[in-house]
Write a structure and sequence with these properties.
Number of strands: 6
Order of helices and strands: HEEEHHEEHEHHHHH
Strand content: 5-15%
Oligomer: single chain
Distance between the termini: 41 Å
Helix content: 55-70%
Strand order of the largest sheet: 1-6
Structural class: mainly alpha
Largest sheet: 2 strands, antiparallel
Length: 217
């Protein structure tokens, strides 16, 4: 017996993806989840963010435009121009505050230009489902032969590591070495499995989860 063969698939929201996404959505943008759409950008930590944690200050312009297109998210010409100038540091002509200006857009310019940008939960979920694959692969890489299949336990881990790590196996291992070590250290008896599961959940809730320090937006 092992931790990997004793995980739970008693889904709260109907599937692994739905359970995983629900946890991420609550942490990243509860208002969007509850309202079904949200206008403008958010600024957790000062960065320009939309949807469920898409950070346009961290992500490259190419990644933003490519993943938005794949998710079905459209931008106005003015929104894209301001973002392109901001990310590249280039002088562009764009409309902001009721005026047409030619300059390198600042973060404040982008926030103002994107003031009417609206994203729905459905589109934000499309984007989340695309980008979360990086973390899915990273967790599998970190666990190796002791990888956990789709389960409520895996959903909790993915939601913990999303946007607190780069999504690579190394970044996940560095962020939560105790949690990863507990999962990889297979118990040999049913009693040991129960104890190990308790230790893992304690570490998620009171150990690595404390490092997340994530205020929902």
């Amino acid at each position: 017996m092992s931790i990997q063969s004793n995980t739970s698939t008693d889904w709260q929201f109907g599937s692994y993806e739905a359970d995983r996404n629900q946890q991420i959505k609550i942490a990243e943008n509860r208002i969007l989840l509850q309202a079904g759409s949200r206008t403008g950008v958010q600024q957790p930590g000062g960065n320009i963010t939309v949807g469920y944690g898409w950070d346009m200050d961290v992500q490259s312009l190419s990644a933003t435009l490519t993943n938005f297109a794949a998710a079905g998210i459209t931008l106005t010409a003015n929104e894209q121009t301001a973002l392109e100038g901001y990310k590249s540091g280039s002088v562009v002509t764009f409309d902001v505050g009721g005026a047409t200006v030619t300059r390198v857009p600042t973060q404040a310019d982008v926030i103002a230009v994107w003031g009417n940008f609206t994203i729905t939960d459905a589109l934000a979920t499309n984007l989340l489902n695309i980008v979360i694959e990086t973390w899915e692969a990273g967790l599998s890489g970190a666990l190796g032969a002791e990888d956990i299949g789709d389960s409520r336990e895996r959903a909790a881990l993915i939601s913990l590591f999303y946007n607190t790590t780069a999504g690579t196996a190394a970044s996940i291992e560095n962020f939560a070495p105790t949690t990863i070590g507990l999962i990889e250290d297979n118990p040999s008896t049913p009693e040991d499995i129960i104890l190990k599961r308790a230790n893992i959940w304690y570490e998620i809730v009171y150990g690595t989860n404390a490092l997340r320090a994530n205020d929902t937006l």
